[in-house]
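Weekly modeling sync, notes
Attendees: S.R. (lead), two postdocs, one rotation student

Agenda item 3: backlog of single-chain predictions. S.R. asked that every request posted to the team notebook include the full sequence so nobody has to chase files. The rotation student volunteered to paste the first one in as an example of the format we agreed on. Action items at the bottom.

Example entry:
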Amino acid sequence: MASLIPLLTEYEKDHISERQALPEWYLGLSDAEMDARIAGARRTLGNRLVILGHHYQRDEVIRFADYTGDSFRLAGQVASRPDADYIVFCGVHFMAESADVLSAPHQQVILPDLAAGCSMADMAEPDQLETCWEELTQMGITPQLGSGQAPRLGSGQAGVVPVTYINSAASIKAFVGEHGGTVCTSSNAAATLTWAFTRAPRLRSGQGGKILFLPDQHLGRNTAFKMGIPLDEMVGWDPNEIFGGLTPDEVKSARMILWKGHCSVHERFTAAQIATVRKQHPGIRVIVHPEVPWDVVQAADDSGSTEYIIKTITGSPAGSVWAVGTEVHLVNRLAREVAPERTVISLDQFGCLCSTMFRVSPNHLLWILEELVAGRVHNRIVVPDEQKHWTRVALDRMLSIK
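Predicted structure, as returned to the notebook:
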C-alpha cells in the first residue's frame, strides 16, 4: 500500500495537462523547484493570502496550507482572516462555494483546479430537490414553507425540515435555507438533527415531524441510528424514481427521509474488511468515518468525523493499534504523526483515495499563486447573488448549532 501513492503521483504528473490546461512552463517541474517557488509566492503575497487545506489533500499541497481541517473547521476559519484579499481553497468546488458565501465582500475565493469536484455533491441536483419537495407535498408530508416563513400545515400533513450535508452545491444549500433548514457536517450532524427535530412540525395526532436529509444517506442513517432512531423509521428517497420509489404510507411512517447519495470513497469500506483486519491484527481497534455504510459502523469500534478520528487516535494509549476507514492521505499522514508510539493502518489494503481531491496538484497551486503575484486572478469561485442570501442563512444556522 505504501507504494500506491507514489505510483499515482507519477501517473498524475504524466497526465496533468489532460485536465484543466496549464501553461506549458508549469509542466515537468521538479518537486524541489515547485516547493521553492510556491514558498516564494506566499512570501510575496504575505497577509493578502490565506490557503485552506482539507485533510484529504496530498502532502505536497497541504504542507502550504495556513489552516487544515475538515469541512466544518475550514468553514469556521474563513472569517478568521479578514485582512486577506485571496482565499485559495485546496479542496473541492462545494467547499470553495461555501467559502465565497462566508467571506467578506472584498475577498476572492480561488480553487486551484476547477476539475476538483465531488461525486456526492453531484448526486443532488436543484431540479431533483424541487421535484422531491413537490412530491412530498402531494403525499401530504411537506409543509408549505416560503421565504423563511413558519410552516403552514394542511389537514393530515406532517412537517419536514430539510438538512443538507455540506457536501452539496450552493444551489442545494440555498433551497434548504429558504425552506427552514440548515447545513451539517460530519462533526455536527447529531446536533443538527436534534436542532431540526425540534423545528419539524407535528400533527395533532402526535405523528412526529420528519427530516429530509441529503445527499449522503449513510451519514444520515448512521447519525440517526446512533441517536436512537430505529432503521424501520428511515426510508431511502431515490431522486431518479417517481415519488422517490416510495409509497405515501412508507414516507408517513418515517422520521428520516434519506436521499440516495453516497461518497464513492467511503462506500468502498466493508464489514468483511473489518473481520479480516481483526484476524490479521488481534486486539486492533477499528474507527471509521460515518459516511461508510451502516453495517460497517456497526462492525467497527468507533466512528466519527475526520477531526474526531484524529483526536481519538492521538489521544489513545501508547502501543495502540488502529485500522482507519477513511481517505488514505489522512490515514497515512496520521500514521506518520503518531508513530512510533501508536500504529495506524488503512482498513482498505489498497487505500481509499479521493480522486477529485487528488486533482489539486502543486503545479496548479504554483500557477494560481504566481498569477496572483502578477495581479491576475484565475479560477475564482462566485456564488450567484440569487443563491447567496439563503445559502448564507443555511450556513450561519450550521455554525450556530452547538
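Discussion: group reviewed the output briefly. The longest strand covers residues 49-54.
Action items: rotation student to repeat for the remaining queue; S.R. to check formatting next week.
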